[in-house]
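Ticket reopened. Same input as before:
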Amino acid sequence: MFVASTYSKKEVFSGLEPDLIIYHCNELVTMNTKYGAPRIGEEMLELAIINDGAIATKDDRIVFIGTTNDFISKYEFGKVPTKIDASNKLVTPGFIDPHTHIIFDGTRENELSMKLEGKTYLEILKAGGGILKTVRETRKASLEKLVENGKKILNRMMACGTTMVEAKSGYGLTTESEIKQLRAIQILNKQHPLDIIPTFLGAHAIPPEYENNPNEYIKLIISDMIPKIAEENLAEYCDVFCEEGIFTGKQTNKILKTAIRYGLKPQIHIDEIVDTNGALLASEIKAIQTGHLLKSNDEGLKAMAESGVIATLLPGTPFCLMLNDYAPARKMIDLGIAIALATDLNPNCWTESMQMIITLACYNMKLSPAEALTAATINSACALQRQDEVGSLEIGKKADLIVFDIPNHQFLPYHFGVNLVLKVIKNGKIVVDNEFLT
Ligand code: NIG
Ligand code: FE
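Engineering reply: fixed in the latest deploy. New output:
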């Protein structure tokens, strides 16, 4: 479980001798604004950029942030063991990807031709493809295989600048295989530098064995899966795919109420294909975050703004479904809804790159580069309730950051389809180094 932040003890970290300094940053995006988190409305535009910035770290924490001159006047520059010259470069907080399905076996590249023939997501699922195909293959996979697959994905995510990621189960749909997926997440969280936040998504689809008796499956989730998962502390969140033909609002409510009783925090996939009044339900249940929201109605959106539920927008999904229909991000921002961005990485929508998601968010949902970057950092941290630890660059927070080989944040969506990351610093250590790019 998440323990209270050390960030409040800012003074403890300020003044410590740094072991790493990144200096002459052309743009150092700190996200340290006067606003609380998450940022809403026009607050999303304020990146609190320091030009010719410097950021220094000690162990896994940020101990200095300011201008390069400021640093040189306060510290003995020559004594810092590791120095990174970020002239002409952009430095930002590490990306936080708050909605993913990274634990699976088998792939679904064959579904592209079905989509090209005009088959819809739900038609592919009904024909035994989609989630159900991945379920068949994930059930057969060993724990070791799932860990191996997950590790590859996490390595790619890290190479693209992600430093914290949420990961869902949901391709097992039996108690045993859901637990197998969550154990894979637990192992990866210990082995891999990235921080991984586990979510139980047993209610991802009705498994074939329960096709004619979905309520029995819901009983299994409520009386067997949730208690066991909570007992073993295998998940922090519980999610449900609330959608026409998948789980109804009533079933979603029942599952999430049970999860809350067992200490899991609620999230929901809502209104992706059809408006099932998911936004209203998410507000009533006080979900921490909700995913998709392509079809949510205005009443529901207003309720979300009032109740502070974060809308995690997943523009990779409509892109892969060839829908040309994206979540109404501008309307949400106008209404005062806090929005975050995530990859939704899954075998239907397979990208590790938050850079790609930022591009899609700008070009297809009309976010500005500043809004998209806010949504992919501090607001994503809020979607996982980690804003006291990560999401902005401030003294005492975790030293999770990215050095990009571009001069400013407007380049992020502009120069697209390639990895612009030069270095990734995770917990104060250089974990990715693409120096050959320069
Ligand atoms: O968020 N919509 C439900 N779940 C995933 C897709 C899972 C899959 O297709 O394998 C999503 O898009
Ligand atoms: Fe999803």
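The pocket of N-(iminomethyl)-L-glutamic acid (ligand 1) is lined by residues 101, 130-131, 134, 241, 269, 272, 291, 317, 344, 346-348 (CB under 6 Å). The domain at 96-383 is CATH 3.20.20.140 (TIM Barrel). Please confirm and we'll close it.
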